[in-house]
Amino acid sequence: MADLSFLGFLVLLLPLTLLLLLYLIVRPKPVRIPIKDRHVFITGGSSGIGLALAHQAAKEGARVSILARSGKKLEEAKQSIQLATGIEVATYSADVRDFDAVKTALDEAGPVDVLVVNQGVFVPGELEVQSLDEVRLMIDVNITGSFHMIKAALPLIKKRQNGGPASIALMSSQAGQVGIYGYTAYSASKFGLRGLAEALQQEVIADDIHVSLIFPPDTETPGLEEENKRRPRLTSIIAASSGAMKADEVAKKALDGIKSGSFIVPCNSEGFLLSIATAGLSPQRSVLMAFVEVVAAGLIRFVALCFQWNWYGSIEKWHARGKSVNHADL
Ligand SMILES: NC(=O)C1=CN([C@@H]2O[C@H](COP(=O)(O)OP(=O)(O)OC[C@H]3O[C@@H](n4cnc5c(N)ncnc54)[C@H](OP(=O)(O)O)[C@@H]3O)[C@@H](O)[C@H]2O)C=CC1
Ligand SMILES: CCCCCCCCCCCCCCCC(=O)[C@@H](N)CO
Asked: Does 215 contact ligand 2 (Cβ within 6 A)?
């Protein structure tokens, strides 16, 4: 009996000690980032996830600016937000690949409290059939474009007027946590954002600037509709492991993640598992999440291997059927 209660005591004491230890060591420390009455600047804010984010930020009382290339889409976005919320957003037409254009737009927009780097292009295809121009497009818009935005915005974020904590959020993808068939260039561009974000967080923490990386699954947007026209069948099969979300749902998760200063922001339950499986050396502010990451590490690796087993099974089956060129429309 005495032995049993000692065992019970240990079983309780061990996790509590771990929790206490994690409470003492998690860095950066937890933070709340308000968005009401603050300037939220969203790239790719004229369509899909960016537009949904602009709607929600406006609804929550932020001053919103959106940037994209097409003036027509920007105008339509502005109208729809005005209709829904009565709020007038500022629009900036610029290509993120053009640093001078981006800098001019941001300088005109003024001090920024929350920067959401959301623009992105995705052209799926096996590397062997994909053109190098398409590869370059994804690297230039998704990665170099993000550098341009952050480099031009940093001085303006530091100049923010009310001095509260600021945020730089980057829209990655679950394909930026695990490489997916048909996404060599796209996955590379989204994995790249993680290196950028981890290093940047260390550089800007002293300025009370907090970095968030958002990882949506397939999301119903005009961009996905385009992508679906030429998606390899295997890409769709593997991506279906994580289902699909609506742009509004992703925007809500993203905004909640930004406001709570989370470094990693998953959007659905598969994304939650993925974030534990790929926790790596990313910062973690939440004691509870840190606890789950430490305790579940071994088991989650097993689950990850089960997913790979399943995906390689699909790839094998596909090849056994003799489909070497496998676009959805063939
Ligand atoms: N939809 C999905 O399934 C998923 C999307 N994501 C990511 O979410 C982000 C948004 O995706 P989604 O909403 O689907 O995309 P959409 O294609 O619906 O919208 C993309 C937005 O980015 C803008 N944009 C594209 N290229 C440039 C450029 N060179 N310079 C400035 N703005 C540009 C577009 O406007 P314009 O063309 O006028 O410039 C538009 O506003 C992307 O980073 C994407 O990778 C992540 C996971 C899943
Ligand atoms: C350890 C447990 C793992 C759990 C589940 C793993 C599921 C992974 C699925 C990845 C889906 C990637 C979709 C990318 C969508 C996207 O970015 C494109 N639509 C282009 O925008």
From this structure: no
